[in-house]
Design goal:
This protein has about 850 residues and is α+β, with helices and mostly antiparallel strands. The chain is built from 21 helices and 27 strands. Strands 6, 7, 8, 9, 12 and 13 form a 6-stranded antiparallel β-sheet that branches. Helix 15 packs parallel to helix 17 and helix 15 crosses helix 18. The longest helix has about 30 residues. The C terminus is likely disordered.
Length: about 850
Amino acid sequence: MLRKLILAGFLLALLAVLAGGAGAVYVLHYFGQDLPDHEQLARYEPPTVTRVHAGDGRLLAEFAKETRVFVPIDAMPLRVVKAFLSAEDKNFYQHQGIDLPSVLRAVVTNVRNLGSNRRPVGASTITQQVAKNFLLTNEVSFERKIKEALIALRIEKAFPKDRILELYLNEIYLGFRSYGAAAAALNYFNKSLDELTIGESAYLAALPKGPNNYHPIRKPEAAVARRNWVIGRMLEDGHVTPAEAEAARAEPLSIRDRGETEVVRADFFAEEVRRELIELYGEEVLYGGGLSVRTTLDPAMQVMADKVLRRGLIAYDRRHGWRGALAQVDLSEGDWQLRLAAVERPPGAPAWSLAVVLEVGSKGVAIGLEDGGEGRIPMTELLWARPWLKDQQVGAKPRRPADVLARGDVVLVEPVTETAQGEAYPAGSYGLRQLPDIDGALVAVDPHTGRVLAMSGGFSYERSEFNRATQALRQPGSAFKPFVYLAALETSPLTPASIILDAPFVIDQGAGLGKWKPSNYSDRFYGPTPMRIGIEKSRNLMTVRLAQTIGMEHVIDYARRFDVNDNMPPLLSASLGAVETTLMRLTAAYAMLVNGGKRITPSLIDRIQDREGKAVFRHDERDCAGCRVERWAEGPMPRLPDAREPVADPRHAYQVVSMLQGVVERGTGARVKRVGKPVGGKTGTTNDALDTWFVGFSPDLAVGVFVGFDEPRTLGPKETGSSAASPIFRDFMMEALAEAPATPFRVPPGLSLVRINAETGQPARAGDAKVIWEAFLPGTAPTGEATTIVGGGIGGGGLNGGSFGGGLGAGDNGSGGVPGSLGEGSDLESGLY
């Protein structure tokens, strides 16, 4: 009987084992037939953040859908690795994907907790978490847990432990928009992984179970408790000593934002870099490829650019009047602070405060501030606020505060300490402020390389993301003239001392189009005038006559060579800048003038590296074998080849540079003379003052400034590039060159410097008042025996025995006839090109 019972028990046990085995086989077959392919993990590259740095290495921008910084496992600090292993899977290096003892403990714990409303305890290994995070969903179900376990077993067979751990530590979500331990270290503590303390490492290791449950700000007690639990596990596992554990538990859990000194603010520049990266690599690589981008940005210059552009736009805006309060609130029911708080702050306002006018007196107004404090705007700070009128004109000067403000007006104010004359204000004094409705841009470029050192695309990126440096197509006006003069110097025997007629100019544009009659800004005519003065004083008639004489085909050619405009029409009006370009293109064109006529391409990016550190892009592709040495021995410095394409004769380019220096010293750019160092440049103003410019350079820095309304309208009476744009250029150059030596413009070989009379273009004589050094190619210096007139001749001599480009009648010298009347042979009758 006993034998039968034993046999029956054995058969039952055998059947149970067979049934269990069959069940296991069935489960493996059922759930394993459509599992995701774990082999894709071998090819997996987690999407990581693309980081953009300024030229000095500071962070400029980050682009990512998931904030992640990939760190190889062999670069992970051991302290961080041990913290995660203690918290999540202390037997990671012993099990084969499933930790059976932990599973049994979890089963027992969950059975005990039945009916207690407690969340079931899990026993997932790090390998299982990798399987879930990479290949499965977060669905809570028995089926998903079985698949997770099966995939974990397969992963363990296919990959080494370190690779599995590397995937986990770079993929796990840890809150604060952080994917992976490295990103979390930056976002929580503003540290790299190797800078973390034991307590900080333990806190990060505490987060995988639920970052929101241990939020350091919203739930600090739970966060510290969970961190200390991890420290205890590290102590049990022998990863820290008791003394280290005690010290780590005593650490405060302090969250640190990214240091301001480590982050550069240049929104327009960063957005332009983003667009360029998308064009190069596409959005997927930009937001997940982990690129490291080193840009050309000079942070110090960028601060200068933003500051002087804002200051210049505000100065223009104040000249053109007060447009009124931001809002009006009812103060009859009291509680002005609550009503002020309901007023939306205008986007793009600098560090100004919102204020409400509480009382209007005879010598000032009392105001209430956002923080509940009170202050006063004295009458002297209201004198600028003439009422704005149509076409940027202004009304009468205010005589009392009530002419400007009324009780309940909401305005912007800024603390002031003294008057314009230096007299001290009482404490609590404020100045009335107004956001300008005009806008502009500033660009600074290294003329030798094309590296964009600073770019401010508008008053405020918050107010408008439109980049007026690169996206705004506007007419440059007279700022284009230097390229007409360069074309003339290169394609004709003319020199900066050649005489050009400044006289009335009329062209019949064809049937039904009427006559084109350009004029000078002053509406005056100045007669025969040296070429140099034509550009220094920005004479339109001289420029048009010069363009007609050499032919518009040459002007168009130089516009293309210098990348000002690709499709310039063959119209004489185009020689006066009646074509569209961008500030960036025009500034780069000026850079090519001052660098000796060598082509440069504006670049915002120096170098791009992929996630593995391999350089995939370099702006400067020149090879320097002598630069790649471990140590420097005494000897000559290695020389880089100059691969820049010539676009103009450096001698003619210098002649134009010299004339543009004269614009600053004697011409329309006289405001810029305060820089006190060699600089040159040109103003630009279009018809009705719709666009104003100043573009110029020092020997090693090219800078362009544009000022205008986004929807073109006049800047107002008497506003020009000289008044609106050149002060911004001047202020930028004064700061940018403050520590630089006064470097003269470099004179290329093949030129002779001759003293001439600036007013006549002839060799200087004793007693001449206005004498300058002029640059001439060999054999072209004036001798005093002949005068060249472009557009007309003046009696014997001239160029090659006659005038260049036709002649005037006998009256052109004042000896009969009408000055400036057309005579036989004049090329002015040939019509509009």
